[in-house]
Amino acid sequence: MGRNVYIENKPLEEALDLFNRCLTECGWLAPQFEEVDIMECLGRRTFHPVYARRSHPHYMASAMDGIAVKAASTYAASEVNPVNLDPDQVLMVDTGDYVPPQFDAVIMIEDVNMIGGQYQIIRAAVPWQQIRSVGEDMVEQDMIVPSRTLIGPYELASFKTASVERVPVIKRPVVAIIPTGTELVERGYDDMPPGEIVESNSRMLAALCEQWGGVALRHDIVIDDKELIRQAVVEMEPQADMIVICSGSSAGREDYTASIVEELGRLIVHGIATRPGKPAILGTINRKPVIGVPGYPVSAQLIFSLFAQPIIYARSGGEMPSPDTIQCQVARKLPSHAGVDEYVNVNVAKISDHFLAYPLNRGAGVTSMLVKSDGVLHIPRGSEGLDAGSPCTVALCRPRPVIENTLVCLGSHDLAIDVLIDILQKDHGIRMISTNVGSMGGIVSLSRGETHCAGLHLLDYESGDYNTSYLKKYLGRQKVMLVNLVNRDQGLVVQKGNPLEITGIEDLLRPEVRYINRQKGAGTRLLLDYLLQKKNIDNSGINGYNREEYSHLAVAASIKNNAGDAGMAIYASARILDLDFVPVETERYDLCILPDLFTGRQLDSLLTAINSNEFKRRMQSLGGYHLENTGLIIQDGVG
Amino acid sequence: MGRNVYIENKPLEEALDLFNRCLTECGWLAPQFEEVDIMECLGRRTFHPVYARRSHPHYMASAMDGIAVKAASTYAASEVNPVNLDPDQVLMVDTGDYVPPQFDAVIMIEDVNMIGGQYQIIRAAVPWQQIRSVGEDMVEQDMIVPSRTLIGPYELASFKTASVERVPVIKRPVVAIIPTGTELVERGYDDMPPGEIVESNSRMLAALCEQWGGVALRHDIVIDDKELIRQAVVEMEPQADMIVICSGSSAGREDYTASIVEELGRLIVHGIATRPGKPAILGTINRKPVIGVPGYPVSAQLIFSLFAQPIIYARSGGEMPSPDTIQCQVARKLPSHAGVDEYVNVNVAKISDHFLAYPLNRGAGVTSMLVKSDGVLHIPRGSEGLDAGSPCTVALCRPRPVIENTLVCLGSHDLAIDVLIDILQKDHGIRMISTNVGSMGGIVSLSRGETHCAGLHLLDYESGDYNTSYLKKYLGRQKVMLVNLVNRDQGLVVQKGNPLEITGIEDLLRPEVRYINRQKGAGTRLLLDYLLQKKNIDNSGINGYNREEYSHLAVAASIKNNAGDAGMAIYASARILDLDFVPVETERYDLCILPDLFTGRQLDSLLTAINSNEFKRRMQSLGGYHLENTGLIIQDGVG
User: Fold this and answer.
1) What gap in Å lies between CA A11 and CA A22, rounded to an integer?
2) Predicted confidence (pLDDT) per residue in A72-104, tens digit
3) Three-state SS string across B234-276, please?
């Protein structure tokens, strides 16, 4: 089958060391020189010092609007005995004008009276007063800046002023990025068939490369054909200082990177003991670094950051910024393989006086995790992970003030939470992050003080009321505020046109109906269980009861893609995806707030956002929401 | 004369308030919407939330290389009783491949044995194992990011993955920048006559504007002609969201900005009580902000930063970064007018355990000061300034780690110091800043512990030796290290071809010889005084003895520009500027180091740099330097 199943498991440190040693030996890491026009130097770093090519000013210049005089001609002047100068004894000058050698002082215009064509002076001028000497700012051949200086607006202006026209800068390393994969397309389009994916890794790596000081040179997508990939490498190599091949780095039937590197240059490492990232490739072709990054985006990002970032900075002459780190407690247990260096993306928020790190989904294929991430937690090789509550250090990728002003909302998810997040960020400058852990997960997080608030829709089977009895039971001693966000229609989302003619939950027992359930602890699952119980239906008769999705939209999307026929979800999810909906129940969806974890301004902002017309308007437009009680405070204080 | 001498002196706070109120009232500060192609969204900020247009994956996808199966077909499998599947019961899949509905599990290839055309399975598959569900990463219509999110590499990749092709972003405000001035030219050229200046302010402001999130639209230089400037404003206004007119903001004969704003729109403020910056103009034309900035670069930079920066950020939807501030002691007295808000650019360095702020030259025409500046010290209106040693707060414009690793060299200046600065930055990553305060100034700074080191060339009139007797006298108790940098030729720099036939210092008494002296405390001035004394020459007979320049190159540049005929300076300054040189003396130029103020690494680096071949080679190539004792430690310890 052409598979070469085994790749190495080289420890990270060793892989870094081998790669760096190789690049140091061939001198690749040393910055290279080029000269650019003054108008292209902004943001670059100087290779050599930059010297002034002309003094500034390069002539004796007036420092004021006034008249140039020979100082000696004014020595007799006083308020009592003014001196009157003839027009041929003075020269009218504005600030910056040339003062010719026959003059040696300037008198500001405010101190001069014009009387009958003569200039009346009432105070003696001191020689060289109000005259800027040659080179006051910069002298010809002065070193304006040394080597390795980042050129910003002020350096640019100084160079211009000193008549510098060509600037010696460090050449930005050119990084060729070659995306490979038969399944890849350049842009999304309607009715994209299953199996096709929009290529995005090369875009991400190119943007990172430019951020780090490199120039990205992206090749078009190459299909999984060894000869074509090889051709692409051979074509890019002469134009590039470094080559990155996206995906194909593993040892599957269509993974060609390793053998191409071996044939064209030197394969240094294949397989690195990191998670994510393991099937990565390091090598050189013509003494230039080559990196084979895995196809999963989070793996690609990690491998590129670990191996390309330091060498791009070194070659660009810049200091690689060391990330701000923060001491946190990890919010939940994080097991790890002792054999790998593991990098976990986390959210970070300040809860009362400490910072909590919330591990994000560790799936390497989850691009959205990189968008959500506030930083990275490194679990070094040899460690078997962290227990919940353990201290840990997070390398932040967001400014600390943003982290410090972040609200956490762990609980049931509703589109109302997204709308709130948007309004809070837009109108109040407050960031709220939300993870869907279901209503019961929200209750647990609230009870542990791990979240500022939680969306809840927990039906009390006995009273038929929502949420309050749960708060009493699980948060009895805590000060909480319960606010209604929306009432919403729950029901069965079904295929467009309802081809299976589903009319209620009894139909879920029909064997041809593929049901998609929600995860345990989700309020929507509890609602289904309650309805099944009321009707004495045994859930083991439902095809797919154990198949779980984590949100309303995920359930609806699966049905839309014909991976299922019915699922309990809110009306809006059916409407958004143009599916049919069989209403079952209208339920209350509240936000439970722990007011002691909020600053006054944060709480004001949150309540203002909930009560805003914009919130109601946007929810209304989604359909299936009832807003008559929105903002109503159902409970305030210990329950 | 067409002058309108009087402009206001509006307090800064009031001017800011008037301007902001006006822009708030007309709604100018609110971010504006535009939609851009996905490939142009990097670095922009979202106006609306961005929603996924397609789930990712949008089909059930294999999470591994392996075979897709119907889980039920494997239930009987065990190591003892393997199940053999026919080719029509399985589908070979690679990671990411589509798993069609007839399959519901994937078995990784490592767990499959091919035996006689059949697939041997030794463990039962669990339904949905190794299958990525639809929308595992993102579900169609998921909010990927809320409004006001800065789009970086990960957001870009997520948008691509979710088939987003058009991105709703905040429009970057377009800032028209109009440079005015008859004296201005676009580029420097050979033999630029006196009075001409290379235009640089608009380049600086354009670069700042882009840094802050705006788009700069620069007009060509307009000469000082009211009608032409007016036409430029009228031409730019429809394309711009904001207009900046460079220079012409005062009340001189050729200052037209105020009257143009008055005619075309509304003049809000003319004259603001800041230093620098006073003659600034604020107004609106067609409800768009107009700022008239003064012609002096430091004034232009201050006014643009105070008034344009916050409104560009507001309109771009970004949070204006608050600068890192640092508590310092001011190194020397800083008097200020009680009537103005004064902004002083300073260098900052850490000396033992505290930070010192060294005020830079306050001349508003000194572009190079902005290059040197590490931060700004604000002396509020009402204060009469700061005494030396007073505590003060500096808003940093460089990262704190750079400041913390900065060495200070206050003393006599020599080109050797520039070469050292360059080598230290390039090869050792250490920044050294130097200000020329003369040798005696260096001694004073050393004795106060205000500098890490100082260049000295102080001749002892009695012994004929250099530096050591001064160290004994002024730094008797301090631990110092004195290292020879160079020996250098001092002499009279004269016009090319020596037209006045100057042969020695006696010729300075000739009345037609315009001498240019160095400032008091400069070693070169002391050398002249010593030589004059030895020859019993009275300095009052020298034309220009009181005319002072602050460096060798400044003296030479004045002679080059025919502002003088002779000046004492080092040979290299004559050679660099292609002038003639009459040798007078070879002197020792040493570096005096206070080792206790250095870290071990810093001191090692400095001594390594001094002893490097590169240092010697570069000094040698300048001419007039003798390097036989370079690096020699003349004194080490208390003198």
Assistant:
1) 17
2) 899 999 989 999 999 999 999 988 899 998 898
3) HHHHHHCCEEEEECCCCCCCCCCHHHHHHHHCEEEEECECEEC
Q: What is the spatial distance between Cα A546 and Cα A540, in angstroms, rounded to a whole number?
A: 9
Q: What are A74's two structure tokens?
A: 């004014």
CB contact under 8 A, B144 and A201: no
DSSP alpha helices (H): ranges in B521-585? 523-534, 552-560, 571-576
Q: Residue B118 burial (CB < 10 Å; 0-12/13-18/19+)?
A: middle
Provide the mean pLDDT of chain A.
Answer: 94
Cα–Cα distance, A58 to A269 (Å, whole number): 59
Q: Note the ipTM here.
A: 0.94
Residues in chain B: 639
Residue of A nearest to B551 (CA): A139
Asked if residue B546 lies in contact with residue B525, where contact means CB atoms within 8 angstroms, the answer is no
Cα–Cα distances in angstroms (integers) from residue A116 to residues A119, A120, B32, B69, B253, in the given order: 8, 10, 59, 108, 20
The terminus-to-terminus CA distance of chain A in angstroms comes to: 65
Q: Which residues in chain A have their CB less than 8 angstroms from residue B366's CB?
A: 136-137
Q: Does A136 sit within 8 Å of B367, measured CB to CB?
A: no
Q: Write the residue in B370, B425, B576 that is nearest to A154 by C-beta.
A: B370
Phi, psi of B585 (to 5 degrees): -160, 150
Helices B523-534, B438-447: crossing angle, 10 deg rounding: 120
Q: What is the pLDDT of residues B29-70, one digit of tens each?
A: 999 999 999 999 999 999 999 999 999 999 989 998 899 999
- Residue from the list A140, A252, A562 with its beta carbon closest to the beta carbon of B65: A252
CB contact under 8 A, B200 and A156: yes
Q: Which of A183, A425, A557 sits opposite B134 (nearest CB)?
A: A557
| 3 state SS for A395-417 | EECCCHHHHHCEEEEEECCCHHH
Residue A92's contacts (CB-CB under 8 Å, 6 or more residues apart) are A67
Inter-chain CB proximity A197 and B161 less than 8 Å: yes
Q: How far apart are CA B286 and CA B266, in angstroms?
A: 9
As given in the structure block, the two tokens for residue B578 are: 């292609």
Q: Under an 8 A CB cutoff, do A207 and B152 touch?
A: yes
Structure token pair of residue A401: 């003030």
pTM comes to 0.93
Residue type, B363: G
Q: In this structure, which amino acid lies at residue B243?
A: I
Contact (CB, 8 A) for A482 and A534: no
Question: Which pair of tokens denotes residue A69?
Answer: 């005089």
Residues 6+ apart with CB under 8 A from B446: B411, B453, B454, B474, B475, B478, B480, B592, B594
CA angle A42, A47, A51 (to 5 degrees): 80
Tokens 């002034």 -> residue: A52
CA-to-CA dists, residue A233 to A174, A268, A312, angstroms: 14, 17, 19
Higher pLDDT, B266 or B577: B266
Calculate the CA A623 to chain-centre distance: 32
Alpha-carbon span A441 to A433, nearest angstrom = 15
Euclidean distance between CA atoms A595 and A573, whole angstroms:
31
β strands within A352-478, DSSP E: 354-359, 375-379, 385-386, 391-396, 406-411, 431-436, 453-456
Phi, psi dihedrals of residue A313, rounded to the nearest 5°: -65, -45
Interface of A with B in 427-446 (CB under 8 A): 429
Token pair 């979240």 is at which residue? Answer: A451
Query: What is the sign of the dihedral through the CA atoms of B225, B226, B231 and B233?
Result: positive
Residue B585 CA, chain-centre distance (Å), reads 39
- Per the DSSP assignment, residues forming a β-bridge with A432 are A407
- Whether residue B167 is predicted with pLDDT greater than 60 in this model: the reply is yes
